[in-house]
């Protein structure tokens, strides 16, 4: 009898959507699977801002422990939530083809407040990256902390006296919750690996590695690895406003990235275009360039502010 693959997942609607996507893809390959929902620390504390929790791996740690304890065989994560250094004995089994990458502004009435000089709009997000970029563009606006899964955050926006909140497009669109009153923030640079889903397994589990191999999307894997290399070299996470986006057009890989101060006023950015065949180390070299230009001082200032 063939082994049944136990798929570990968080309990949110979005996490379950991602896990069911992996379940369906494995079923198409002829594998038997079952879902094992597990609550993460990040789902339990919905009040404390992520950057105050010591967030590295907060949405993945519980699943990692379940994986290492053999309660599950694979775990499915939003790749942007995964620390750049995986725990010992856990490896990446597959990176799925990327979904929507951009951020969305979900507004309650209209977007007129974006054009009103001096108007102190109330905008919600728990992301330091989004906060920094938003305050650079709209310094007069007030930023409010917004935690929880997609459904919880939409409910909170409806209840509070806020003008708008910022969400990842992938999260809303995958579970068909994108409101009509939303716009894509073309100017906002996304988080490294935003919109991508990763499957991890135990390093010694050859069966699951082989089962997941056909799910791997090499273009998404390359682009997200470059973005995560940029993040890793800058030693960032949800506690540092770091943005990065790589994509391929023809035979060229285009990369844009940024390191920002907490208030968004001080920032260093890079834009590069290289042949795809020469792109493997791009995230690392771009991050080293940022550090050499003064990024080390921005990172030090953020650490001192904690």
Automatic annotation (TrEMBL):
Task: Look up the domain of life of the source.
Answer: Bacteria
What keywords appear on the UniProt entry?
Answer: Porphyrin biosynthesis, Transferase
The pathway where this protein functions is:
Porphyrin-containing compound metabolism; protoporphyrin-IX biosynthesis; coproporphyrinogen-III from 5-aminolevulinate: step 2/4
For this entry, list what GO says about its biological process: heme biosynthetic process
Which PROSITE patterns does the record associate with it?
A: PORPHOBILINOGEN_DEAM (PS00533)
Alphabetical GO CC annotations of the entry are: cytoplasm
Q: Provide the reaction this enzyme catalyses.
A: 4 porphobilinogen + H2O = hydroxymethylbilane + 4 NH4(+)
E.C. no: 2.5.1.61
**Which is an annotated Pfam family here?**
Porphobil_deamC
The enzyme class is transferase
Domain Porphobilinogen deaminase C-terminal, by residue range, is: 222-291
List residues of the Porphobilinogen deaminase N-terminal domain.
Answer: 5-207
Spell out the InterPro entries in the cross-references: HemC, Porphobilin_deaminase_cofac_BS, Porphobilin_deaminase_N, Porphobilinogen_deaminase_C, Porphobilinogen_deaminase_C_sf
Similarity comment = Belongs to the HMBS family.
Assembly and oligomerization: Monomer.
Q: What does this gene product do?
A: Tetrapolymerization of the monopyrrole PBG into the hydroxymethylbilane pre-uroporphyrinogen in several discrete steps.
What is the name of the protein in this document? Hydroxymethylbilane synthase
